[in-house]
Amino acid sequence: MEKPQKTPPAYAIASVDHALRLATILQLEGNLTVAEAAERLGVARSTAHRLLQMLVYRDFAVQHPGRQYGAGPVLELAEHSRSATSLLRSAALPHMELLVQAVGESANLTIRTGVEARFIVSVESAQVLRVGSREGMVFPAHRLSGGLLLLAELSADELGQAYESRSDADATDQPDLPKLRAELARIHKQGFAVNQGRSERGVVAVGVPVRDANGKALAGLSVSIPSVRYDRQQLPSLVATLRMAADRIEADLARRTLI
User: To which H or E segment does residue 251 belong?
Assistant: First the structure.
């Protein structure tokens, strides 16, 4: 049985969404101030302060000296994991903003954990009809262009083990592995992935990998386009633009890693 495609709830509660996004940022990236939280969410500082105080009350956050907040007991992760994700995000963000300006579409950066993929950065385009922020959201990796790119880095045995290790409760969206292997081989060879409506109807996403200095794929960089605006004839140009942005992220990341 396939997992339903993700769509925003009919009666979305903005304050809950903001709190969940803050919790995700704290978990993946580490400390931030009220001002930084307000900027990330696009809300007033007083609103960000109230949200952070509620997270502290429920142990999702802790308040440190110096007006910073960090992940609380509920969200604690290994420090290395947090800092690595934060470094990747900070290296990618300015180049993603330039990418959005260049192509006029929203951009995302995705990492993989097992057979799931998480959006760690989203930059929305300024167009009225646009794909909204996916930051913090988690999808089955085989349903995202970035997830497919990262799965394509696995060997056939690694891919099989990743899906076989899931419990029955987690396997509601199990892909056809032989078919997926063939698709991943093609994606690995061509160096980009296209997702047409797999994660959300009416959306096309095109992505390329972002690699470290050793050639290991760290993330998938993608642009998300309303399907009514997608022109397949522009795919080569779009991939080339994505590749240039990924190259700049990789170079920036390499410089930051050496510091």
Answer: helix 235-258
Q: Is the pLDDT of residue 102 over 80?
A: yes
Strand order of the β-sheet with 193-196 is 138-140, 116-123, 106-113, 217-226, 203-211, 193-196
pLDDT of residue 114: 87
**Range(s) of the domain holding residue 32:** 14-71
Same domain, 120 and 65: no
pLDDT in tens, 201-239: 999 999 999 999 999 999 999 999 999 999 999 999 999
Position 132, amino acid: G
145-177 per-residue burial string, b: 16 or more CB within 10 A, e: under 16: bbbbbbbbbbeeeebeeebeeeeeeeeebbbee
The total number of structural domains that make up the chain: 2
Instruction: Name the 3-class secondary structure at 158.
Output: helix
Of 27, 22, 35, the C-alpha closest to 68 is 35
What mean pLDDT is predicted for residues 138-147? 94
Please say whether the beta carbons of 216 and 240 come within 8 A: no
Q: Residue 151 has what pLDDT? A: 97
The CATH number of the domain holding residue 21 is 1.10.10.10
Tell me if 3 is assigned to some domain.
no
238 touches 257 (CB < 8 A): no
Map residue 259 onto helix, strand or coil. coil
Whether residues 227 and 181 fall in one domain: yes
Per-residue pLDDT at 108 exceeds 80: yes
Task: Tell me how far apart the alpha carbons of residues 111 and 57 are, in angstroms, rounded to a whole number.
Answer: 30
Nearest to 145 by CA among 156, 134, 155, 159: 134
